[in-house]
Write a structure and sequence with these properties.
binds magnesium ion, four-stranded antiparallel sheet, alpha/beta, Rossmann fold, binds 2'-deoxycytidine-5'-triphosphate, 3 domains, 20 helices
Length: 589
């Protein structure tokens, strides 16, 4: 069982609580089991003989036993809850850490919906199961056996009644559990579906609204919501039959006890208090049976969740450092691709990049141009090892990137991802995300280079302006410029801009380029210029001045050279150039 392995691993720090909790519960169970005998004594020896002393004395004893029992129960609850909460927190933390260690490829496959469900619902299911284990596992079977034994001891003449009823009840229980376990697995799956829809909807709420698709989304949500409800009702209905059946058999049992007991009392071989105690014990067996069935159902639900958690825990990061990974002191900034082929690893899919070969010398600016889906972002992602090449060799300064430590490598590369992601927090904190110790002067210098300083200063709180989640309160172009400043601040040797000025007007874009170029000539404000720039762009205007332009088409480099060379040699490049000169966007594809 997956759940046992997870439980064992993460319960280890709480093992003393796991031992103590059931012992405390044992105390409560023993006290509980004494109560009906006390009632019996009050009835038979106190009330029947009109002996007030016995009534008072036994009554006080009952109160004392109940108090001791309650102490046991409460301490059990505290111990169990402490273990369960600690277990949950540790499990979530380990899971979070595991997720951080996974590569882009793992995350593509698992999906954020799954991971969010993991961190919330799945952990909660395991916690619930654990709590029930610590509260019930000892209590229910003990109470069941104990009350059965006590019933037989109290009224041996009536012992045949529970001995007939109990096997029937057990059979019914097994039948119900067998039917409900698969039903609950379905419920969990539906819950996953619901979470996925909610997550997708919230992440894309702007798209939903801009396309006026709220009714469609509501219908979609309604479907998964109804589906979840139907499944949950179906499972609950099957489970609901259980208590009714148990109650029915139990009521029959009580009628039997009263019927036969009446005989025995009349005949003088039993006393009234005995009958009352017997009925009490019988009800306790019923009660504990119900607890056991709940526990088993919860264990089945937890097992499904444990399976999903293990899927993440057992995932191997696709990109790993070699044990002998080389640390990087300084980089010159040379990049080379030699016959690189790359695919995202899905079966039966043509590679995304095919036999890519090119070199970028330190100090060069190289641009990659190509239609959407050509593989530009995929190519750039191979340099900091977001993914590893399927075949061929990617190297920096002549060293295969697979021999380098990912962390070292990424610290030397400033990567502005195509999709701008900012965090909630101030603009200042966002800019120095990659280098939290940067001084205010450095932050401002980076922002000036990225042409972000002026608009930041125009905000009421300047660099202390608090951004909403994902930077909602900025324009697309403003967000891109903050992302560029963030990349520049780490003083990268290699700067990679993936379509990072797409939302910035041409004038501002040109100023960013001029700033980067002039920076390379004179070292200002302690900012070192990135020596090598790899620029992915859609607009030829943005890349005309590059030392080299690579034209990527369907995963292959189809042309390579400076702007002038390409204009002379490449019909494709000429076509793109002409379409953009006309003021249109790139439409050659
Ligand atoms: N692809 C994929 N899995 C990913 C990312 C991309 O299967 N996690 C596929 C989709 C495309 C191909 O790889 O068919 C190339 O995608 P790129 O993102 O590399 O393409 P571009 O960056 O060139 O396109 P754009 O200009 O739209 O950013
Ligand atoms: Mg891209």
């Amino acid at each position: 069982m997956k759940s046992t392995r997870l439980l064992a691993k993460f319960l280890h720090p709480y093992r003393h609580l796991v031992v103590i909790a059931p012992l405390l519960m044992l105390l409560e169970v023993m006290m509980d089991l004494m109560q009906p005998r006390m009632v019996q004594r009050i009835v038979d020896e106190g009330i029947a003989r009109l002996d007030l002393g016995v009534v008072v004395q036994t009554g006080l004893l009952m109160v004392a036993l109940a108090l001791i029992g309650a102490c046991g129960g409460i301490s059990n609850g505290i111990a169990a809850e402490t273990a369960v909460q600690g277990f949950g927190a540790d499990l979530r933390e380990a899971l979070f850490r595991k997720i951080q260690s996974l590569s882009f490829g793992n995350l593509d496959r698992l999906g954020t919906g799954h991971l969010i469900t993991n961190l919330t619902n799945d952990v909660a299911q395991l916690q619930e199961a654990l709590l029930m284990l610590l509260r019930i596992l000892v209590r229910a079977p003990l109470l069941l056996l104990g009350s059965l034994v006590m019933a037989i001891v109290t009224g041996p003449q009536l012992a045949f009644i529970p001995l007939i009823l109990l096997p029937m009840e057990l059979l019914a229980m097994v039948w119900v559990i067998r039917r409900t376990t698969p039903l609950y697995t379905l419920v969990q799956e539906r819950l996953d579906g619901l979470n996925k829809v909610v997550q997708e909807n919230l992440a894309g709420i702007r798209v939903v609204k801009s396309f006026v698709r709220a009714p469609h989304e509501e219908a979609r949500f309604g479907r998964v919501n109804d589906d979840l409800m139907m499944r949950a009702i179906q499972a609950a209905r099957t489970v609901a039959a259980m208590p009714s059946f148990l109650l029915l058999t139990m009521n029959l049992g009580i009628i039997g006890v009263l019927w036969f007991g009446g005989w025995f009392v009349k005949g003088g071989s039993m006393r009234l208090g005995q009958i009352i105690a017997f009925v009490d014990y019988l009800l306790t067996t019923l009660f504990s049976l119900m607890m056991v069935s709940q526990l088993v159902v919860q264990l089945a639900r937890a097992e499904a969740s444990a399976q999903r958690l293990q899927e993440v825990f057992l995932a191997e990061p696709e990109v790993v450092d070699r044990p002998d990974a080389r640390p990087i002191e300084r980089l010159q900034g040379q990049i080379a691709f030699e016959n690189v082929t790359f695919g995202y690893g899905r079966k039966d899919e043509a590679p995304v990049l095919k036999e890519i070969t090119f070199r970028v010398e330190p100090g060069q600016t190289v641009a990659i141009l190509g239609s959407t889906g050509a593989g530009k972002s995929s190519l750039a992602g191979l340099i900091p090892r977001f993914y590893d090449a399927t075949a061929g060799r990617v190297s920096v300064d002549g060293m295969d990137v697979r021999e380098l430590s990912q962390a070292d490598l990424r610290r030397k590369i400033g990567f502005v991802l195509q999709e701008t992601v900012l965090f909630s927090g101030t603009i200042r904190d966002n800019i120095r995300y990659g280098r939290p110790e940067a001084t205010d002067e450095e932050v401002i210098a980076a922002a000036k280079l990225a042409q972000a300083h002026d608009f930041i200063m125009a905000l009421p709180d300047g660099y202390d302006t608090v951004l909403g989640q994902r930077g909602v309160n900025l324009s697309g172009g403003q967000k891109q410029r903050i992302a560029i400043a963030r990349a520049l601040l780490v003083n990268p040797t290699i700067l990679i801009l993936d379509d990072s000025t797409s939302a910035v007007d041409m004038e501002t874009e040109a100023r960013i380029w001029r700033a980067l170029t002039s920076l390379r000539q004179q070292n200002t404000n302690g900012m070192a210029a990135p020596r090598t720039c790899l620029v992915i762009a859609q607009r030829i205007g943005s890349v005309m001045s590059a030392d080299k332009i690579l034209v990527l088409e369907d995963g292959r480099i189809v042309a390579e050279g400076t702007h002038e060379e390409l204009l002379a040699s490449s019909p494709l490049y000429r076509a793109i150039y002409r379409s953009q000169l006309d003021g249109g966007v790139m439409e050659h594809a």
